[in-house]
Amino acid sequence: MGDPMKVEVKDIDKLLEMDGYLKPFEREIRRRHGVLKDWIAKIDQCEGGLEEFSQGYKYYGLHFQPDNSVIAREWAPGARDVYLTGDFNNWHWESHPYKKLPFGKWELHLPANPDGSAPIKHLSEIKVIIRNQHGQLLDRLSPWAKYVVQPPKSANQGVNYKQYVWQPPEGERYQRQNARPPKPKSLRIYECHVGIASQEPRVGSYDEFADRIVPRIKRQGYNCIQVMAIMEHAYYASFGYQVTSFYAASSRYGNPEQLKRMIDVAHAQGLYVLLDVVHSHASKNVQDGLNQFDGTNSCFFHDGARGEHALWDSRLFNYTEHEVLRFLLSNLRWWHDEYNFDGYRFDGVTSMLYHSRGIGEGFSGDYNEYFGLNVDTDALNYLGLANYMLHKLDPEVITIAEDVSGMPTLCRPVSEGGIGFDYRLGMAIPDKWIELLKEQTDDQWDIGNIVHTLTNRRWMENTVAYAESHDQALVGDKTIAFWLMDKEMYTHMSTLSEPSIIIDRGLALHKMIRLITHALGGEAYLNFMGNEFGHPEWLDFPRVGNNDSYHYARRQWNLVDDNMLKYKYLNEFDRAMNELEERYGWLHSGPAYVSWKHQSDKTIHFERAGLVFVFNFHPTQSFSDYRVGTNWAGTYQAVLSSDDPLFGGHNRIDMNCKHQSDPWGHAGRSNFIQVYTPCRTAVVYARISD
């Protein structure tokens, strides 16, 4: 039978029709996809197809056979000899050598014990020993390790992670209870981190997240969680971006079965679960990472300068190497098939495509930047191959690119000549909000520039909009709430405290910023854990510089749970905003039409999904009988107001008032309604009758 993952590039003409500016680069688009097709053909010829090629975890690593014998395999092309050692052989490094196979592969067969039991037990410690070309013996962890653990400080065994065999008895393996929920039409993402989800100053767990945090996310109206820092990383403060063991779920939160349960619980609540996957680079760690696994400086990475990321002090993959592609593609299959993740956010896509050749992040939008020699087309083709494989494997999978470059075709199907992502992050949006909050008062804001930033995205390429993510909250920066209200949050967030102009302004703008980003900025929306209720301060992981403190590496849920604090207002608005989107579906309804952006009035009006959005950012000026254009005649009524007392507002909008449209037209629209628009208020109107 033929491979069901056979790539076809048949609709490039459609791509060129969508964007005529691509026409001069048609030859390069076809060349790049020719390389992709060549890779597919090579994999078909040598590996029996992409379906089998992408399941390398079934070949490499440690495998228990039905007769309880064990087979171990590794890829170590630069090694002279390879051995397996551990508890099972009393740590005799050279007593169990692997047999050398072609193409840098090594294999070891361990027969069952005389009593029929397996020679290696569940949770026994093992290491791979490499003899390099100079005859030195080097201890390593298998790149395919499923479970690695850092010794406790009390053990005095150093800080390097240790590999433990994960082969629990059948009765101890988690069995899925719930089917995956349907793929959301409108993606509302809750970006989260298991470790900092704890309110206490410590590392949170998979079980705590499942039992305590998942219900919160569901209540807030999100339908997807994006989980960070799951792939094992030795340095906690790296936020998971310095991966050391690509196939191991981080043990600092619990064991693999507990992660499976967490995902299953999320599915039971109707939540899609995305993994933050880091295939753009890897940690430089040698003894408990991929670096120099076979005793050479290459193996999984480029040798020399091309294999080093100077800014991140990490290693860069060699995407032209056959076994590296197998390792990375199989890694995606592993998290999908073994843990039931529903998709991925690919970290560092811009860095993959440009930084590996020393190109910075400044992009002018000139198409020559995207189709010239400065692009790492090896990395580009890996991303295309990964997206093609994932969407063929599972049409319901979701992939998101962390890309700041704006590369055309990144979020178009591979069959059209695109790279195949479903979404890209709208990274310019949070940068714009932080820039405004840092550098200007809101009466100085350029309304047209705000609208431009929120709407400046590629046609037919979906964008995830967000006002802030984990990046903006890291130490050295602050959350939007803290930029708006700062130290006043320590003294005036009680509902019993004296009125504060700073808090009043902060609550109002926090709601407006999030709603306009949600409704105007993209085809999906993302919020980082805790920011929905205005979490104060910043994020800072335990490290030498802060005396290993967990004070800022946690989420203070007590703030939003306290009915006497004003955090509840922001939390309820966030919930109402998501529920309104669920009802009307603006994220999947096509882009908004902005009919009005008035600089001196500081007002913005737009229509989307049958709703009319009215924003007044003016700090002091309210307007009566303000005309708002709409193409839909009928009677309108407010369905969401940021000024509602439920959200900490001043109740200046009559939610029962009916607004009949006038057919004379306004602002290029065929009809208009007249409304009262108070200062620093956003109101959403729905047509309730024709």
TrEMBL record:
PANTHER family tied to this protein: 1,4-ALPHA-GLUCAN-BRANCHING ENZYME (PTHR43651:SF3)
EC number(s) from the headed UniProt entry: 2.4.1.18
Organism in which the protein naturally occurs: Drosophila arizonae (Fruit fly)
Keyword Transferase: yes
Family matches, as InterPro entries: A-amylase/branching_C, Branching_enzy, GH, GH13_cat_dom, Glyco_hydro_13_N, Glyco_hydro_b, Ig-like_fold, Ig_E-set
One Pfam family this sequence matches: CBM_48
Family recorded in the similarity comment: Belongs to the glycosyl hydrolase 13 family. GlgB subfamily.
Catalytically driven reaction(s): Transfers a segment of a (1->4)-alpha-D-glucan chain to a primary hydroxy group in a similar glucan chain
Superkingdom: Eukaryota
Name recorded for this polypeptide: 1,4-alpha-glucan branching enzyme
Residue span, Glycosyl hydrolase family 13 catalytic domain: 209-574
